[in-house]
Specification:
Largest sheet: 10 strands, mixed
Radius of gyration: 23 Å
Shape: elongated
Oligomer: single chain
Number of strands: 16
Mean pLDDT: 90
Number of helices: 8
């Protein structure tokens, strides 16, 4: 049997979700079998899986020591040099400026040079995260595509993670802006409302008027000419590859986009400007009326400056983007 007293930072969540986090390697079937067999108790009383934990609740899980060891064994954290720019940090969150080409989470080919792995290494070095004893693993509360740079927010605590993810899910009290450099001449302002669907087999997203989910992108033209446009993009919904697909569909392919862009124009741009990356950058995030443990972020805006290479491109194009 394992016995745990619930801390404040672990309260206000369903008991089944907490047990899943406690036993990360356990199959879901095993987790819910514990509840069916009444092997999970709070304050010596059997509870259902939707029970909401309170601070100082005494949780008992009736499993063997061997099962606990098997289901809690953590993957080794690969030591790496931390290479990200910190924009802001406090006891709850870290806001970083992600480089292009960096994976947020690992995949089959790469699990070392990822933002998540660097985050854990950084917090271990600071003494704020202890892999063998911490109940919560610090993690990112939203994502950026591998080739999109800019603002990423990491949660240090469970409560910050829960409330942060809720902010991004509801979107009412958070506003994200991107800089996109595209081919062709854009309107001064446009709202693109086109439903999107994803083909998981090839990881491609397309406009789909029949089965697609609502997706809305707003942009304002910062500067441009007949060949190029620098856009301030407001992501109103948050579908996968949304900005890239919406702009491409509207004949404004993002420079350097290898999936939805114009390959011939990308090649020409590379030859002329020595630039082949995807010019999409999450440069600004604004918190509105935030509640809970992150309420102190209300009415605050954080910005991630462009890297020198992108600034150089804008300078050569003589755009008004020099302050980004």
């Amino acid at each position: 049997m394992k016995q745990i007293v619930i801390k404040k930072e672990d309260s206000n969540q369903r008991v089944d979700k907490y047990v899943k986090k406690m036993l990360p390697n356990a199959p879901l079937s095993f987790i819910y079998k514990l509840f069916r067999k009444k092997d999970v108790k709070i304050n010596n009383k059997w509870v259902k899986e939707n029970y909401i934990l309170n601070e100082n609740d005494e949780l008992k899980i009736f499993i063997t020591d061997e099962q606990f060891e098997e289901f809690t064994k953590k993957d080794d954290i690969i030591p790496v040099t931390v290479k990200f720019e910190i924009i802001y940090e406090d006891e709850n969150i870290i806001i970083i400026n992600k480089d292009k080409g960096m994976l947020v989470h690992g995949d089959k080919k790469e699990n070392k040079w990822t933002i998540q792995n660097m985050l854990l290494n950084y917090l271990i070095q600071k003494g704020e995260y202890h892999p063998k004893t911490s109940n919560f693993t610090p993690s990112l509360i939203h994502r950026l595509d591998r080739n999109t740079s800019g603002i990423l927010i990491c949660a240090k605590t469970l409560l910050a993670s829960q409330e942060g993810m809720e902010l991004f899910k509801n979107k009412e009290n958070i506003e994200k802006h991107y800089l996109a450099l595209t081919f062709n001449k854009a309107k001064n302002h446009d709202i693109i409302n086109l439903p999107l669907s994803k083909d998981s087999d090839n990881n491609l997203v397309r406009v789909d008027f029949k089965n697609g989910k609502e997706a809305i992108t707003e942009y304002n033209l910062i500067d441009g000419n007949d060949e190029y446009s620098l856009l301030d993009v407001n992501l109103i919904t948050g579908r996968t590859h949304q900005i890239r697909v919406h702009l491409s569909y509207n004949k404004l392919p993002i420079i350097g986009d290898e999936k939805y862009g114009d390959f011939n124009l990308n090649k020409k741009f590379k030859e002329e400007f020595d630039y082949e990356k995807q010019f999409l950058h999450a440069y600004s995030i604004t918190f509105k009326n935030v509640k809970g443990c992150l309420s102190y972020l209300s009415n605050k805006t954080f910005k991630a400056p462009l890297k020198e290479k992108e600034k150089e491109v804008l300078k050569r194009l003589k755009t008004k983007g020099k302050n980004y």
